[in-house]
Amino acid sequence: MWIRQSSFPSWHTLVLSFSSPVPVDLLLFFTSMNTLSNSNKNSLLWDALLFIEKKFNQDINLDQIASKSFYSKYHFQREFKNLFTLTPKEYLLQIRNQKALLSLLSTDLRIGDIGFELGFENQETFSRSFKKFFGMSPIQFRKKYKNPKNTTYPKIPFTIKTIPKTQIIMIRSTKGISGLSKKINKLLDFALQNGVHTFESCFYGKIHDPPQLANLTLKRADIGIEYSSIIKNEILYPFYIDTIPEGKYYSVYHFGSLKEIHTTYKSIFSTLKILSKNFIFQNPPYELYHRLTPFFPEEKSITEILIPVEH
């Protein structure tokens, strides 16, 4: 992914090849690039990816995204795709269309309003992008899948609880739920090396892209462990720090495999009637894993879904 000395001149050779004095800012750039480890470089790309996730419904361009790294925008785009499989623009469109799908299923917002909230220029652009991902227009999708005939979802019990501010070390699977097991091993190794894991530590997660969504190159699922002590080493890709804000949350339990958790979410949508554009267009709910595969059989897994109570 990075320039190899065996194939290209080293940065020393490039600097010495200048016939005139090297500008200081260029010298600093080559120096910083030479000393960055692969983890550092990937962390810069990861920061750019998180920037897209936070600003996905705003008018952002490649220059703004690339500014989160040391790369030129053209080199950045190539390195981003090498690491994450998608170009920045493709990733941005995946997020927008995934959010659109959830909104079409779970709200009564007009098609044009959904597209506007997600940052599309107009309804035509939104509809064309959505159809490319899901094979039908937003109107066709809503008619087919929202409240299908003869389909009812059971009422689901819930409580309201206060959650303290919680710091979490997260790692992401880009293969969805099926890729979480390998990530858990890396997460535990990191936590043990840094002395932040105890038997009382809880596992948390976020499922960005529901398992039943088709045509998604990246299927994002995050798994993390809470911590309260000082971390010995710098947090670099593939790890990142997340924070659950203090506040009141709806608490709903899912029993059984995470692969079927979307059925519980559908019952939540039907029962709580609390969905608003803020819920759909921002971060997914946190999941607290009381019993988690591979530590327990899938059928005995217990997941608590935490949804912020809006004020």
Structural notes for this entry:
Helix 6 packs across helix 8. Among the domains are: 56 residues, Arc Repressor Mutant, subunit A (Orthogonal Bundle); 150 residues, Alpha-Beta Barrel (Multidrug-efflux Transporter 1 Regulator Bmrr, Chain A). The protein is built from 12 helices and 8 strands. It has an 8-stranded antiparallel β-sheet. The termini are far apart. With 311 residues, it is of the alpha+beta class.
Multimer state:
single chain
Classified by CATH, the class of the domain at 159-308 is Alpha Beta
What value does the average pLDDT take?
79
Strand order of the largest sheet: 1-6-8-7-3-4-2-5
Kindly list the characteristics that best describe this protein.
311 residues; alpha+beta; Arc Repressor Mutant, subunit A; Multidrug-efflux Transporter 1 Regulator Bmrr, Chain A; eight-stranded antiparallel β-sheet; 8 strands; 17% strand; disordered N terminus
